[in-house]
Specification:
Two copies of one chain form a homodimer. Chain A has 352 residues and is α/β, with parallel strands linked by helices. Chain A has 13 helices and twelve strands. Chain A has two domains: 184 residues, Isopropylmalate Dehydrogenase (3-Layer(aba) Sandwich), CATH 3.40.718.10; 152 residues, Isopropylmalate Dehydrogenase, CATH 3.40.718. The radius of gyration of chain A is 20 Å and the shape is globular. The relative contact order of chain A is 0.17. The structure holds 3-isopropylmalic acid (2 copies). Chains A, B: It is an enzyme of class 1 (oxidoreductase).
Amino acid sequence: MKLNIALLAGDGIGPEVIAQAVKVCDAIAVKYKHEINWTSALTGACAIDDCGEPYPDSTHEVCLAADAVLFGAIGHPKYDNDPKAKVRPEQGLLKMRQKLGLFANVRPTFTFPSLIDNSPLKRERIEGTDLIILRELTGGIYFGERGRKDDGNTAFDTCTYTRAEIQRLAKLGFELAMTRSKRLCCVDKANVLESSRLWRETVQDMEKDYPEVTVAYEFVDAVAMRLVQWPNSYDVLITENLFGDILTDEASVISGSMGLMPSASKGLHTSLYEPIHGSYPQAAGKDIANPLATVLSAAMMLEDAFGLQAEADAIREVVNKSLADGIVTEDLSGKNKAYGTNAVGDWLAKNI
Amino acid sequence: MKLNIALLAGDGIGPEVIAQAVKVCDAIAVKYKHEINWTSALTGACAIDDCGEPYPDSTHEVCLAADAVLFGAIGHPKYDNDPKAKVRPEQGLLKMRQKLGLFANVRPTFTFPSLIDNSPLKRERIEGTDLIILRELTGGIYFGERGRKDDGNTAFDTCTYTRAEIQRLAKLGFELAMTRSKRLCCVDKANVLESSRLWRETVQDMEKDYPEVTVAYEFVDAVAMRLVQWPNSYDVLITENLFGDILTDEASVISGSMGLMPSASKGLHTSLYEPIHGSYPQAAGKDIANPLATVLSAAMMLEDAFGLQAEADAIREVVNKSLADGIVTEDLSGKNKAYGTNAVGDWLAKNI
Ligand SMILES: CC(C)[C@H](C(=O)O)[C@@H](O)C(=O)O
Ligand SMILES: CC(C)[C@H](C(=O)O)[C@@H](O)C(=O)O
């Protein structure tokens, strides 16, 4: 198979972790006789430095021409804490989501038995956790009208949702639930927000098309609690953009395996795969960043975007082997020897 | 001293836990020679049943005439999962907040050494946690314009904040920080929302008036993570209404002492004190609800609204004694004997 993949390494540790995923995919390509065509493009702070734009048109062209996008991370401290900065790396992210129509962010949270003691939660609370949050990614308050009034002394943001946007996201949720435990949780704030009432109404209407799926409706504040108390009581959750931002991040730390969690953003034109961790600028260039989340994101990409199940499984297997054999970076090595980012990538590629 | 207190017991376990707080306060009044004048009024589902209104004008009059309001909990399952219900108990809550001008919800999260093992978090993560979240309670997306368009197929909600609203809340935060560790965390989503940028700008402008306070600015998604990872790294946090809803609930479960957490809502006309737990309808009428959060809310009321420090401390002391002696309801009794709601209240009153 010929795979055309856009490579957006981004900022901070992005380039280092992406490099390891490329090594691993290239090893897969050799073993399973595929041809991967990688096309790199700039995004984030490095793109601003280059051309003043965090998501340049040239990068968008590269993404559109690709079968899938593998993304690192973006963000740089020089843009933080400056509410008045004109261009910020995050704007590139939002522009990319919108222009590529990346409407559904798929964020699994699961545990690795060998890492369970890294969790801030007690073992009995976190054991068996295997949930997926589907976050709507191109609507809501992120993309509504916003501005100032009264000489800048009043600010407003608008959260808007259409029935079609909700259906598109919920459909993925129902379908995913059908392949798993057939339980779906719709997260909203329907006791306050009109947009949440439209979410609830729309999902309730869709229930008849999926008679086997049991749907629960929970308020976002209640979910924020239950994610900490009984994360293993959830399976598939669907929610709007801002709630998803908060809940996916909360969910990411409970497993203790944040450095290993992959994610996908399903799009109208193409789909994008990225680790959930950030650009971690303090670690950049030090060969200490954990590449496993990016490597597992590449596995997700091979499976989802190309249907290459055996190849994806082979990557997951070698990752499990690296964990079992202690071929890991310092965040996971505990009292044992820590390997560098590159050394972990080399080991994974060699063991494919 | 003469204390005029409005008593809003509400729904579910509300009346039972409120009754215990009344017993304890009455015992305090005897011992410290105060005269408490309790005036009861309906709110929530019971008020809807009575007159079709969850926060009737007559109840509002009672609150306005009082020096402080002691509140139980509201909500009833018959109103849940019905996005189209015309009147809901929660609307009473929002109306009450708005009409009483309850602009600041003060929600502490702390630990009781004897209860620390109830926390879903590991001991080393939760030990020493003592934080307070100040949630703005009468603005933002809760009270902005909302509605439908396109034959009901598009829904919108508006989040609006004025500089004055932010200053009012932030002032409390700075003042509270001055009485504690002098660290303040402003929680927003300034990388996306204009209203958050106004929050950040406004708080940054206020920093010069509190040169001793160190202010950190964090994004709501990052705070949702850190609350689970290192709750004891926080002291005072300030945030807008919706973020506060989610984060205070998340924070409430990490201590393992949810059934003990009090809260205050500071108002323009009067202030309101309530346990943070809900109306827990499944437990209503069974004499099993834990009254300690309500009793501790009464302590907070005596301290904040009436300046009765010794009296508040006396209540906290007897609560600690009940925990130490195991005079507790079934949620805290573990393998030991569980006491009923009433028995706990009687014991506390007797031991004042
Ligand atoms: C950087 C920021 C705009 C972004 C978001 O809020 O969506 C990030 O937090 C994320 O979750 O990908
Ligand atoms: C019941 C609901 C409207 C309310 C809120 O969202 O404010 C509740 O969750 C709370 O936190 O007091």
